[in-house]
Amino acid sequence: MNESAHILLVAPMHYEVRYTINPWMQPERWLQDAAGLHGQARRSFDALAAALRAAGCRLTVIEGAPGLPDMVFPANAGVVLDGRLLLARFRHAERRGEEVPFARAFEQLREAGILHEVATLPDGVFQEGAGDCLWDATRGHFWAGWGPRSSRSAVDAVADYFGQTVVPLELVTERSYHLDVCFCPLAGGEILYYPPALSAASLDSLRQRVPAEWRIEATEDDLAHFSVNAVSVGREVVMSRTTDRLRGVLTERGYRVREVDLSPFMLSGGGAFCMTLRLDRRSTAVQPPVS
Ligand code: ARG
């Protein structure tokens, strides 16, 4: 049985890689073959949409805006729960221009009855949306990354707005600049994560909350394949082309892994999860796993 996930995507017509705000970004590689990569991005996007549909998701696709190439990563545009959306505030000037077009798009979703409230963060707080604030449907709380992009104070802002527990996780490397690069709560209750991305205190707090048999450690190779940046819906997991190792681990646990070639988006430091924003998340938790 699948939860019927409703996912927002942003079409890649304005996508390109032309600045560097995370260590994965390769504008020089993009420039070598901009036209070819643009076509490839279009095909990768279509393949991602097809995989998500095949996994049972309902999709809403909006258009991006010229000059704002990273709008293809709507996970960073807001945090959504129970039809309420908290708009992101971006750390880097390169992405700040996305705030207005995204706010407009969310307002339209509100008028369409898909969202029922759109709210703004307190002044001075950076928070880069669901990319840094992942809802754990099994345990009924958010996990929030802070450090490279989102402020530590965003943890309280999200908790205040949603009235939910938010567990902070400090990101200590630039490669895992957003939590969704290195951390993924799977729909079956496991947490897939890359330990070196988190501070010692954050690893402790994760390990206190999630027993060992529910933790799946990703390797550096899995991280470099953007495999932790996965969309998990029911028993389906959609991700960029992964490693034999991780495919084996997930299959063994009863997941069906659907892989998509997302290499044009990896040149911007993104994978499957950050190209999506789930609009249907509800705060009712399913049964926490028993150890
Ligand atoms: N180039 C984008 C940035 O650095 C990629 C964002 C990917 N999003 C994510 N949630 N990991 O902001």
Automatic annotation (TrEMBL):
<feature type="active site" description="Proton donor">
    <location>
        <position position="178"/>
    </location>
</feature>
<dbReference type="GO" id="GO:0016597">
    <property type="term" value="F:amino acid binding"/>
</dbReference>
<keyword id="KW-0378">Hydrolase</keyword>
<dbReference type="InterPro" id="IPR033199">
    <property type="entry name" value="DDAH-like"/>
</dbReference>
<comment type="similarity">
    <text>Belongs to the DDAH family.</text>
</comment>
<protein>
    <recommendedName>
        <fullName>Amidinotransferase</fullName>
    </recommendedName>
</protein>
<dbReference type="Pfam" id="PF19420">
    <property type="entry name" value="DDAH_eukar"/>
</dbReference>
<feature type="active site" description="Nucleophile">
    <location>
        <position position="274"/>
    </location>
</feature>
<dbReference type="GO" id="GO:0000052">
    <property type="term" value="P:citrulline metabolic process"/>
</dbReference>
<dbReference type="GO" id="GO:0045429">
    <property type="term" value="P:positive regulation of nitric oxide biosynthetic process"/>
</dbReference>
<dbReference type="GO" id="GO:0006525">
    <property type="term" value="P:arginine metabolic process"/>
</dbReference>
<dbReference type="GO" id="GO:0016403">
    <property type="term" value="F:dimethylargininase activity"/>
</dbReference>
